[in-house]
Write a structure and sequence with these properties.
mainly alpha
């Protein structure tokens, strides 16, 4: 309990750890196409470039990016891109 008598909240991540790291455990929630989009975000591509690579419209890419953000519970494209880069370079983290 804090000095005010309210219970302390448990942080969702380790102190000082990246806020996007817990999202790596949720990558399995993504559809195959969302996973493709997620991995392209690691490359820092624009929606236009991703649309060309995926052979879809930019509107579809925006929808995929929004779905990825929602399913991974991240609130910025930068956070998703950082998580994607870590995922692509380090692989899936092991459960503790």
């Amino acid at each position: 309990m804090s000095e005010t008598g309210t219970p302390h909240s448990v942080p969702a991540r380790a102190p000082g750890g990246p806020h996007w790291k817990p999202a790596l455990a949720r990558v399995g929630r993504l559809t195959p196409r969302e996973q493709e989009t997620f991995l392209l975000l690691a490359e820092g591509l624009s929606n236009e470039s991703m649309a060309q690579r995926l052979h879809v419209t930019e509107r579809t890419v925006r929808a995929h990016v929004a779905a990825v953000m929602e399913k991974l519970e991240l609130h910025s494209r930068l956070a998703v891109s950082l998580a994607s880069y870590a995922f692509a370079t380090e692989g899936i983290p092991r459960s503790a």
